[in-house]
Amino acid sequence: MRFVSSLLLLAAASVTLIPLGADNDRALVRSLIGSATVLRDGKTEALRVGSVVKDSDRIKTGRQSQVIVFYKGVEIRLLGETDATLVSLTNMSQPGEVSVTKGFGWFRVDDPTKRGFKASTPTSIAAVRGTKFAVSYDEKGSTSCVCQGTVATSAVADPTKENLVTAGGSHAYASSGNMESHDFKKYFKKLKVDRSFQQEILRDAKLNSCKSCHRMTNIATDNSQDPQNY
Questions:
Q1: Which of 58, 62, 98 is nearest to 80 (CA)?
Q2: Domains (range + CATH), the chain
Q3: Other beta carbons less than 10 A from residue 225's beta carbon
């Protein structure tokens, strides 16, 4: 796995990884850059690589940090200054759900048909129909971006009215519940993103988190090899 933002590259030397197949019966912190804590049963403790996380755990990441949690084909990445709760992850009889009330979360679901999976924010719900997507939230509202597959988004106020968004697309929900649709396909080529994407980041600062995976470059002239996997 390659993290291409300068922030994550600077911290990568201290990262320890747990093999994906290790202890697959428990949800584990597979990777940690910087710091993160978990609030459980009223007590807060520091997370480490190999820490077990459970349903209802509230995870907070420090500034310039990243934590990756893995459980039975579901990968959850939380970037710096993120506040997220594992509403339902290890209970296989229920759909998976993560609530992001601040910051940025990226999700990969190997087989969403097994149980379903969604990421919610105070203004929106994103239910996965494909495999890779992200949600972010700040005081202005939420943004959902799809890297691969299809996601059905809806406003929290009207969860029955779903809007489908496919790879390269994004849905933004304001605190009022109004939705805006954006198409970012022209900016991206695998894990490269054109420098002109900066204009979208200026419009919505939450999109800056896309650079944690995508390397900014001039797509028209950059012929260098680029990994295909996030």
A1: 62
A2: 6-217 (2.60.120.1440)
A3: 6
Is residue 122 helix, strand or coil? coil
pLDDT of residue 16: 46
The whole-angstrom distance between residue 109's C-alpha and the CA centroid of its chain comes to 11
pLDDT of the residue at 30: 96
Mean pLDDT, residues 74-95: 95
Structural contact between residues 123 and 141, judged by C-beta atoms closer than 8 angstroms: yes
Separation of alpha carbons 65 and 49, rounded Å: 13
- Express each pLDDT in 178-214 by its tens digit: 999 999 999 999 899 999 999 999 999 999 999 998 9
